[in-house]
Amino acid sequence: MNTPLNWALVAHIIGIIYWLGGLIVAAQILVRLGNESSPDLGKALANFESKLLKRIVHPGAAIAVLAGIAMVAISPDYLRQTWLHIKLALVVILIAVDLLLTVRFRAYQAGRAAIEPRQARLFYASMAVLLFLIVILAVLKPFS
To answer: Stretch 108-123: mean pLDDT, rounded?
Structure first.
C-alpha cells in the first residue's frame, strides 16, 4: 500500500541502515586505528572513516530522524505509546554515542588524542546493544 506513512517508514528504515551500519563500521575502524602501527595504513583508515561519517553515517542519521518525525506527524497516535517513548530515549542515547565517536575521531585526526582500542570496542558494543533494543521496541511494540 502506497501511503505516506509507508513511504516515511521506508525512508526511516533506509536511514537507520545507513546510520547504524556506518557507525558499526566506523567503530571497527577506530579499533583498527588504535592497533595500527603503520602510519600509511593509519592515514588511509582515517581518511576512509572521515568519508564514511560525512557521506553515509550522518546523512543516514538525518534521514532516519526526519523520517521518524514525519511518521509521528502523519500518525500522532504513536506519541501515546510507551514503546515509542522508550525508543526515543534510546535514540537520544544513540545520537550522543554518534557524537562522542565523531568527536573522538576528529581529535585523533587532528593529533590531539590517541585511539584506545578498548574505548572503540565500547562504542561498537553500545551501538550494537542500542540497535537491538530499538529494533525490538519498533517491531514488537511492547508496553502498548
So the answer is: 86
Angle at the Cα of 11 from the Cα atoms of 10 and 12, rounded to 5 degrees: 90
- The answer to whether 60 and 15 have CB atoms below 8 angstroms apart is yes
Domain boundary assignment for the chain: 4-140
Spatial CA neighbour of 67 closest among 138, 130, 137: 138
Give the largest CA-CA distance in the chain.
Answer: 54
d(CA 55, CA 5): 26
Burial (CB count within 10 angstroms: exposed 0-12, middle 13-18, buried 19+), residue 40: exposed
Q: Which three cell numbers stand for residue 3?
A: 501511503
The Cα–Cα gap between 13 and 25 comes to 18
- Prediction pTM value: 0.90
Three cell numbers, residue 116 = 584506545
> What mean pLDDT comes out for the span 56-69?
97
